[in-house]
Amino acid sequence: MTTPTSPTHPAHPDRMSVPPPAPAPGLETDLLDQAWELHPSVSVRPEPFGALMYHFGNRRLSFLKTRQLLDIVNGLATAPDARSACLAAGAHPTHLPALGRALASLAAGDLIRPRSTTSGQEPA
User: Fold this and answer.
1) Predicted local confidence at residue 28, as pLDDT
2) Which of 17, 62, 116, 119 has a C-alpha 20 to 30 A away from that of 40?
3) Parallel, antiparallel, or unpaired for β 36-38 and 112-114?
């Protein structure tokens, strides 16, 4: 039984953050074929496990669980699309669906956004 002071209770002060909505099914494959960039209000701090991402606009803190995902996020600004950023970071093609879901989660949290043709390289 949980109590209001238990860390597992939904009303606990440490659980005030609301997770981003789950990405729509199939979004990850569409996302991989689009050009993306880091939101300008997001700061990324590399860590041994991957990275911390903080959005100064919505005050959301997120974790990148691997250094490879950090390399992918860093490569989004110059890659023609997210798939190219993944492959350039050394991702195996069989891992693209999982990486697409991870990027979709970052997009749902407004940590990355579609890249316009005026910011960075033009999409292919």
Assistant:
1) 55
2) 17
3) antiparallel
